[in-house]
Structures are given as structure tokens and as C-alpha cells.
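Mods, move this if it's the wrong board.
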Amino acid sequence: MMEQFDKGYFFTDIGALEVAGTERGIVSVRFVENVDTGAACTTSVVQQCITELSQYFGGRRTTFSVRLNPGGTEFRRRVWHVLRNIPFGLTKSYRDVAVAIDRPTSARPVGGAVGHNPIAIIVPCHRVIGSDGSLTGYAGGLDRKRWLLEHERRVLATRG
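Not the wrong board. C-alpha cells:
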């Protein structure tokens, strides 16, 4: 029997997020221009993910507990694991991430892995910036990256 693949949507101030997964975990969270109006969103993991994203965007959640199942190569999974450990509201450089996986000269391959992160926000690739502090590429666009970083700073500021 094949595992049920499900998707649902969450609408934010910066666009629609498509959440896809199975009971084993979330496969992807990505910004989309078009939504599948036939999506049923019956999988509890997808529903949990949408609830957690709603809490994040509402300023009530700074960490995620939903199960993830992103696929990817071992190298990419190691990079994504490091991204999940970047604290809410903080940033790290590509070089910082490379050092964290014991590959200090691999900032470019790390950048490739960050760019192929299939699970936006929950695996917070928006928290990775250039070593000079510049906002560098983001699959969802630099305006969204800037918004997410500012959102996290606002949430932290209101918590004192």
C-alpha cells in the first residue's frame, strides 16, 4: 500500500505557502504563486505543520516540532540539520555552517545545499547570510528573506 501524499496551504502577508508531506513527515514547504484548489489536507502531519506555521507568523512560535522527511543527499541533510539549530532571530554565514559540519572550506557547496532546502521557514535557510552581513540569495526572494528576519526580530523585541 502506498503512503498517502498530502498537501495544504497557508496564506501569509508575504505569499502562499504550500505544505506537502505524508504521515512520516513534511517533504516540502515552499512559496507558490498558484494553489491546488483540490488539495484536501487530510494528513495530520500536514495539518500540524500548517498550525505551527500559523503560530510562527502570529509571533507565538519560535521553534517547530513537526516531523520532517526532506530527502536529499547526506551532505544536504547535514547542512539542513545545522540550519535547524540556528536560533530564532539570529543569523549565521555560509562559512559558519561549513565549519559546523566540519567542512570549513565548503562555503559554496553549503550555499548549494541551502539553496536546495525544500522546507522553507522550518529549516530556516532565511537565517543564512553572507559573511559580510549581506542578504544573499533566497529561493523565496530577498524581499521575503528580509521580511522573515525582521519578523523574528520584532517577535524577540516584543518578548523583551
